[in-house]
Amino acid sequence: MNENDNKIERMKELNALLEKAAAAYYNTGDTIMTDAEYDKLYDELSALEAETGVILGGSRTQKVGYEVTSYLPKVKHPRKMLSLDKTKSREELKEWLGEQKGFLSWKLDGLTLCLYYEDGKLKQAVSRGNGEVGEDMTANARHIKGIPLQIPFKGKLSLRGEALMSYSDFERVNADLPEGTEPYKNPRNLASGTLRSLDSKIVAERKVNFFAFTLVSAEGVEDNSVSSRLDRLEAMGFQRVEGRLVTAETLIPAIDDFEERIKDNDFPSDGLVLTFDDVAYGISLGETTHHPRSGMAFKWKDETADTTLREIIWSASRTGLLNPIARFDTVELEGTSVSRASLHNVSIMKKLNLSVGDTISVYKANMIIPTVLENKSLAEHDSDVVTPALPESCPSCGVAAEVRESDEGVETLYCVNPDCPAKHLGKFELFVSRDAMNIVGMASSTIESLVDIGLLREYSDFYSLKKHPDEIIALEGFGERSYEQMIKAIEASRSTELYRVLYSVGIPNIGRSASRLICGTYTTPEELTALTVDELTALDGIGEVLAQDYVNWFADEKHLGEFQRLIAELDIRQAEQSDSASAIAGKTFVITGAVHIWKNRNELKYFIEQKGGKVASAVSGKTDYLVNNDITSNSGKNKKAKELGIPIITEDEFRALAEG
């Protein structure tokens, strides 16, 4: 392989890493690497493209965002929305501005929205999405502070701005979460999830704000100044981004002033934006496939701190990957205390050549993921030796671990045990869920930590956690109060109904409705474990496939033993009786699409079951009604219902039916 081939392979690797990060950032609001890491990889990819003259298909340098994958309606933007070019150099920014007058403002860290008005009324609000296609967020936009529903302008008008939450509101929402619930990671994550909610009430309660940063067009208005356009929007009732006019002489002092005030700024910002105030001049410069030449983003340099490495901990994951985590003396970064950072994989560990006691430099860009930047004691080590040694076994199950190498040469450590508890975190998440054992406040992160230290290997282990107070209290983010609240919730879950236990153990294809159905006839654990296929299929709603899955599960001695040990910990009470006299008792419903009266489809299912009805997953001849708020939809369930002559009703119609 020649040098150019090596560069192209590196480009493929970089593009894959950037693609993964962009997918998390634009689709879910999650951040899997810091801005500094992303920028460094992006710049390396750009440089390699320039050196090789090759731009790979789907290169991140040619994209703005990522494909939209949420349930919200998709909207194509009239004109592609591009990212801004960026720099961390004040001098470079000054040189870029030259003799022109510029407008310098906060670069707010939220979700970009495009607003469209006609005849003074808000017509549509669309997220940026991938720059070409966004999500229709109009319903939620009507409840965002800073977006007027009506403005004193009768023509067509469009603008862009940032929707985000303040730090104070972010802290308020986290403080109001139930004890033990996993808190939101940062304001951007919370804003992202909130704006994708189907319940506009949540948007209003969480107090999302919108700050306009550019007026795109206003029919019949000639205005060639960015700053005066924002003044115009403010006069119409919009909240606008804070900014000021600058020249090359006043630019750097203005940047210094913004930087000084960022610690007191209640709204998340990851830098500044400088645009030419002369709109026509900016447009005349044109654009690249990635960014317009009319503006430039200024990113803050990452705050770093030196500290001493104390330990490398290995954490098992549900994919089997064993992740190395550096634990070091606590340092303050971006206003928070940091004592751990992910090392990602074996290759990075080898590159850093870490040893306990080394001086390391860590950083945390924009309050996101702590990362080890460099090992300052590297020169003291033999470059061929990695210390401490890799663990020989999985920390979760104790089975031997092995090093694997990807096609790109990246080495990772894996647990090879298919029954490792860490690979089955999902089963524990189902077990504690509200419809199952309902262990209130048991967050996924807590479950993962308990699995990591070997305290959770099967379901009954939840009821032995009270025997390990010292180990649990010592977990990061825990304390005596958290431990006490967790044990209280676990003890409260001991008294439960048999159908919940049956549902909680995750038998393939046996959901909540099937569990209720089975436990409506067979009312003891002993009966449940001895059922035959014939006995199950005799129940209306249980087919042969479900019955066989059920019987096979209990035929496995491991599953049977785990179920029996769990039952021994519980106090099984009689199930609540459904309302057999209700207007929908005995009727079978299928639910599809989004709901708006009930919080979600599970709540609607529970309501139907409490009223004596049944909920099926597929439309068949036994279905009485299909509940779908979009009656005109061409979905498979709608088509099937029409073919069979089954009524399709909305939630409102269902509620009227249920009320008799």
Structure report:
Strands 12, 13, 14, 15, 16, 17 and 18 form a 7-stranded antiparallel beta sheet that branches. A hairpin with a 2-residue loop joins strand 4 (111-118) and strand 5 (121-127). The chain folds into 6 domains: 3-62, Helix hairpin bin (Helix Hairpins, Orthogonal Bundle); 74-299, D-amino Acid Aminotransferase, Chain A, domain 1; 304-415, Nucleic acid-binding proteins (OB fold (Dihydrolipoamide Acetyltransferase, E2P), Beta Barrel); 421-493, Orthogonal Bundle (DNA polymerase, domain 1), CATH 1.10.150; 496-573, DNA polymerase, domain 1, CATH 1.10.150; 588-658, BRCT domain (Rossmann fold), CATH 3.40.50. The protein has 24 helices and 24 strands. By secondary structure, it is of the alpha+beta class.
Secondary structure topology:
Blueprint: H1 3-28, H2 35-52, E1 74-76, E2 85-87, H3 90-97, E3 102-108, E4 111-118, E5 121-127, E6 133-135, H4 138-141, E7 157-164, H5 167-175, H6 187-195, H7 200-206, E8 209-218, H8 226-235, E9 243-246, H9 248-261, E10 269-276, H10 279-284, E11 295-299, E12 304-316, E13 321-333, E14 336-342, H11 346-352, E15 359-363, E16 371-375, E17 401-405, E18 411-415, H12 425-432, H13 444-452, H14 469-473, H15 480-492, E19 495-497, H16 498-504, H17 512-521, H18 525-529, H19 533-537, H20 544-555, H21 557-567, E20 571-573, E21 588-591, H22 601-610, E22 614-616, E23 625-627, H23 636-644, E24 648-649, H24 651-658
Parallel strand pairs: 2-11, 19-20, 21-22, 21-23, 23-24
Antiparallel strand pairs: 1-6, 3-9, 3-10, 4-5, 4-7, 7-8, 10-11, 12-13, 12-15, 13-14, 13-18, 15-16, 17-18
Helix pairs in contact: 1-2, 3-9, 16-17
